[in-house]
Amino acid sequence: MRSPTVTFLGGIREIGGNKILIEDGPDRILFDFGPSFAPRYEAYYSGFLQPRSTSPVKDLLEFDLLPRVEGLYSREALADADLAWRAPEIHGIFVSHAHADHAGYLSLVDPEIPVYLGEGTKVLLDAIQSSSPTMKYGEHAWRTVPDRSPVKVGRLEVVPHPVDHSIPFAYGFVVRTSEGTLVYTGDFRHHGPRAADTRAFLEAAAGERPDALLIEGTRAGPDPRRNLTEEGVRAAVDGVLADRPTLALACTYPRDVDRLRTLHGAATSGGRTLVVSTRTAHLLAAVASRFPRGSLPVPGASPGIRTYARKKKRFFKWEEPFLDEALTAEEVRADGKRYLLALDLAHYPELIDLRPPKGSPFVHSMSEPFSEDDVDDRVMHNWLDHFGLEFHQMHASGHASGPELEAIVAQLRARTVYPIHTEHPEAFRSDSGTVVSADLARPYALGRPARAS
Hints:
The chain is α/β, with parallel strands linked by helices.
């Protein structure tokens, strides 16, 4: 019987799109299954131009945007694709966290394949799905697993470890096979509020003396971004809000719970109320029970946070619990100095009604654009320039920096290092093993050192 293997079906020389197949004899498991952020996707699909809902796998296979794997996809998703349906030949999918590039293609998977994930991750996926018209995950044999508890899938044993990331309930994994141990980091950092979790994971991983390390490298290579911590973001936002007698605005990811807590703390410290969208309110309410009592602000249940009532023809059922005390544009505009309003890009038309005074601060608390041609970034600045808003970039990355990645490779001393989720695998070095810039769809044996490609 051949040695256990790891095959990369996505996430190679690109940001996002991790799809990692581990095989040990007859046992086969996948880690993550989501779309890539790479330009090759946007070369064919962008905005409203998306794969057809009646034949999603066929449309994505046409441009090699999905792996051609038998026994993975559902009958419905395959539709009339040239890949025939087969009974499941994957024995489990492990989801590292709820970001779209790691879980966004679960709806295409055969519902008989078990999907393993943390309990908090499942709560978050349910909240995202219930409040999003486009993000659907499908029906599955969901298997929630406790932190650090081994899960057996045939001869494979997987241990999920919580890590710090820009979305709660993120995990890295230790995978024990019949011929050695593999470590998959998922997406992680250790400069956020759950840094202790990342340190504990890395210590446990180092104790396994791993044969292979699959490490994300989003920030490997050239990285001009400021390396702020969450505390650094808080201090910077405090400074912007001080002595500003106007409405203040912010833009952040609705699922970045840590950032929302930071904005809420800055707002209340500055005598303001944080105002969020109904979708953000819904997500906060859904996950609040997973946090210490009172530590997560929720509209309607916590002081210093309210919901914003957009002008809409109709509201969804999930929005209704947050509408009774929601603020209108007229109320926010009338006394703007009392509020810090967190908007999503889709909500920018509200500025037409809000009409904040010129020079009002706008805190962009999200990643900088991947390229100078980023359409959303250009559109955002068009809106800000039109209303004369003062732009501030303040973000703590969800990913480890280049120097931190170097230290982690040295700490784990894996025999083989596979950089993933990065455009710069060449930035990795290892004094204890071989760094392999892997090829897509090529199996790499775990039991012996891989040759660098």
